[in-house]
Amino acid sequence: MDGLEAQPKNLESLVNIPFPSTLRAMQSFLGSLNYYRRFIEDFAVYAAVLYELRESDFFEIGRSQLAAGDECSNEGRWTEAKVAFTMLKAKIATAPMLKHFDPDRSPVIVVYASKWAVSAALIQEYDGVYHPVTFTIRTLKPNELNYGTVEKEVLALLRVLDVCYTTLASREITVLTRHSTLAWLMQSRGLNGRLGRWAALLSNWTMEVKKCERGEEEILGILAASITPRGEVEEMLIAIC
């Protein structure tokens, strides 16, 4: 077997499920996705919208549907939730096969940070094409929401290094990022506070950081694509450390 893939039998039932009408049903749906989160590169980005729903939200939309003339006070949140629900089902249906990690191939990590989530992908090259090995992602804690983009990227990097520690320990790793500041942080000494703690943690790893030259759209594409031709990636990168 070349890798892991989502189970087609279970996929069909998940993809065809209607939008849950109660909080309990939504929680059941989200629980059923635990297996699939490893296949979805931005799982937490969409799931967080659904996790934030409360019983009062379902009550409000139910009341507004019974009284056709009433407007739902949480219409904006409800619209976002339905979009997130639809996107999750679509991503499950098109989930990529994950390759088993090959110790004879160089590991590459792509990091990305949004306003309220951080994500990373561990990928490896096969015949000039990058294939995903695993995706890691989490939503930001309240105290992390005001972090700068580079700080959030560090969180994404630290998480994937922690999750894949056994796989990546003692290996040379290439990190793809939007910001050259990440390389500066890894090389810095004598920093204080959380930057100092992060620099100390990253100093234990051997990494080459490469910056995407063409901006956010391209690095987003690298992370979002299930299979990315290496040639397209190499054209966008410059070594910065």
TrEMBL record:
It comes from Peronospora matthiolae. PANTHER family: POL PROTEIN (PTHR33064), RIBONUCLEASE H (PTHR33064:SF37). It comes from the Eukaryota. Pfam families: RT_RNaseH. The lineage of its organism: Eukaryota, Sar, Stramenopiles, Oomycota, Peronosporomycetes. Residues 102-204 form the Reverse transcriptase RNase H-like domain. GO terms for biological process: proteolysis. One of its GO terms (molecular function) is RNA-directed DNA polymerase activity. Keywords: Aspartyl protease, Endonuclease, Hydrolase, Nuclease, Nucleotidyltransferase, Protease, RNA-directed DNA polymerase, Transferase. This is Reverse transcriptase RNase H-like domain-containing protein.
